[in-house]
Amino acid sequence: MDGKLAQETAKYRVYSPALHAALADDPFYATLEARAHHPEGKRAAMLAYYDYSMLEADRYGLLRLSDAPGASVWAVPLDQATYARKTHEKAAVLRAQMGEAALATYEAMNANMAKGTLPLVDETDWYLSILGLDPAKQGRGRGADLLAPILTRADASGAACYCETFTPRNMSFYERLGFASVGRFFEPVTGADYHVMRRPVGG
């Protein structure tokens, strides 16, 4: 990681281990980690991934952090030029921090999931990309606290929200916040099914 980017992402490192612990068994992130290469090991590659994902949300989307620790990482609609810049920057970071195999895996999984997800959502929707909380602090309402203010903001903006989950046990959590499953698809790189969950305006 170049010096400038390392400085920009350093403030997120307190949250990245919690995201890694919370999402270690998620097929998407487990597959990405398995394909990653980093001089300090695969976990270091994933921590760099989460660091950058939070920076990216700060730059281009929405980010809510919790001292639990935890984070919710959101993408919002962007104009074409800004979206292209965001995509280019993400690819460059993944290539540098995780290697070509991980980048190719990431792009393949996202392309496969887009085929199922995009017909079920609207281009104006807000997308919950990552949600993670220190496993020791789960079950105490802290996960909902990471989402509620942004859902309120989305409602005020007239935006529906959606997410994708490979973990069926998480679905009841999202349902309590107004999301509902609108589709289930097989993702071939992970070898696992995922659900698309969407929350209309007002929940």
Helix content: 40-55%
Number of strands: 6
State the end-to-end distance: 40 Å
Strand content: 15-25%
Sketch the topology as an H/E string, one letter per element: HHHHEEHHEHEHEE
**What profile does the largest beta sheet have?**
6 strands, mixed
**What best-fitting shape do the alpha-carbon axes yield?**
globular
What is the helix tally? 8
Radius of gyration: 16 Å
Any descriptors?
8 helices; six-stranded mixed beta sheet; alpha+beta; 203 residues; globular
Topology:
Layout: H1 3-9, H2 16-23, H3 27-35, H4 42-60, E1 62-66, E2 70-75, H5 80-98, H6 100-117, E3 126-133, H7 142-157, E4 161-165, H8 171-176, E5 180-187, E6 192-199
Parallel strand pairs: 3-4
Antiparallel strand pairs: 1-2, 2-3, 4-6, 5-6
Helix pairs in contact: 2-4, 3-4, 3-6, 4-5, 5-6
Describe the model.
There is one protein chain. This protein is α+β, with helices and mostly antiparallel strands. The chain is 50% helix and 20% strand. Strands 1-2-3-4-6-5 form a 6-stranded mixed β-sheet, sandwiched between helices. Strand 1 and strand 2 (70-75) form a beta hairpin. The chain is globular. The protein starts with a helix and ends with a strand.
Summarize the structure.
50% of the residues lie in helices and 20% in strands.
